[in-house]
């Protein structure tokens, strides 16, 4: 066997890589990266909210606006976020100094992230780092104000970053089932972002047979305002190359590979165990070529990692300028969808046409966009795999709630089922719980009074009040989001008032002997148990 000496110049030492999580969403993304495991890279958390900051797993933490916001978030005010970060500019500069590449993860739309990200990017650039920004755009149901704040920050970041990768939370919300909770949607988004960050970091720090470097990465992500196209897949056994590619193309960020058809450059990275063969690589690249335009610039890297054993992974990274995305039919559809749902009553987007369930509850409660338009990825694949029973049930619910599908004789009144009720409520986690029991109580099917605050926006804070304590993300945010979604008056919040902690229904465990551990009845859902304390 011929040994190739590896050129150390081609890869970057991990100590030169810093991943910065900014604000509540950034902290969550950083936690996800850390939990999923990423060797070497240093993690730095920056936040105004001291509770979220101190809960971060990042090795290094810097509080923003120590004097200005005094440990609280900015209440959704980017100006405050901007001033807060200036207080800590010197500390941030010292922490970033000497790093070759700085990844900044931020959720745009709030105050800290949107206000501080441009300054952090500028400082990193001044220190000579290559800056890759991973930014999420808010869900449609978060309202116009957040969207506008996010857009403003994005415009600044497009100029300040070397590469700007945006993820649309709404699009990633498609990763979760319609009746799953908002936390699931965020978690799914975070997993996807974490995967992209790790893939990109691996590309540039891990020495491979064929290396890709920062210049390649920059080529792949070159456009200023772009949406990241990212997919990664892993497989083992027979046909692993084909399967891994199929998994990668299945990423919702690639629209099942369709978006690659317009890509100008695509970065492809393969990694396999010691049995990775040239034949497999050829096969895989040939299959991939069917999804990529012939004149696209394909940047190829490959690495052998003995810990992969018999697995093969493929990572695809590309980007499309927003103008091109707008020209695409799918994007047109998305835009139209967004505009529709941003109309009159904000908060959760109101359905444009009455749904079947309206027969049960004449005035259906508004639902989030991603609840109404679920899950392209659940559509049967060319080679469908058997799905667990619960999924098909959920699909049924999802398709039931599609506006366009006429159901001839719903007979919901005659035979009320818990599922449609679950799909209607804007409290997906709650709904999931109530949908479970077969012996669902009759009261559950009683029409609920409409919430008075139809247009309350769950994520839009009331103004530039720096004293907001709740956030919708991060450690602290989850409790507030719980409050917003389950205890507040948003959407179908009233369902919550029917829950009694002690006498609360136990779903399928109703009537069974309680499973008591340390005085806790484990059959009561975890979040209800939490509320007792
Ligand atoms: N992907 C993802 N997005 C999130 C998460 N939490 C919040 N977001 C998004 O990020 C935006 C900003 O939220 P945060 O990061 O909590 O806000 P912040 O930047 O800390 O600002 P303030 O809390 O207003 O000071 C929200 O509008 C959401 O769209 C999360 O856990 N994951």
TrEMBL record:
Amino-acid positions noted as binding GTP in the UniProt annotation, renumbered to this chain: 24-28, 111-113, 142, 146, 190
Acidic residues: bias regions: 382-394, 406-417, 426-458
A Pfam cross-reference name: Tubulin
Compartments reported by the entry: Cytoplasm
One GO cellular component term: cytoplasm
Keywords: Cell cycle, Cell division, Cytoplasm, GTP-binding, Nucleotide-binding, Septation
Any one GO biological process: microtubule-based process
Listed GO MF terms: GTP binding; GTPase activity
Record domain Tubulin/FtsZ 2-layer sandwich: where: 210-329
Segments of skewed composition (Basic and acidic residues): 325-342, 395-405
Signal peptide: none
Subunit structure: Homodimer. Polymerizes to form a dynamic ring structure in a strictly GTP-dependent manner. Interacts directly with several other division proteins.
Role played: Essential cell division protein that forms a contractile ring structure (Z ring) at the future cell division site. The regulation of the ring assembly controls the timing and the location of cell division. One of the functions of the FtsZ ring is to recruit other cell division proteins to the septum to produce a new cell wall between the dividing cells. Binds GTP and shows GTPase activity.
Protein family: Belongs to the FtsZ family.
Protein name: Cell division protein FtsZ
The species this protein was found in: Haloferula rosea
Lineage per the UniProt record: Bacteria, Pseudomonadati, Verrucomicrobiota, Verrucomicrobiia, Verrucomicrobiales
Gene: ftsZ
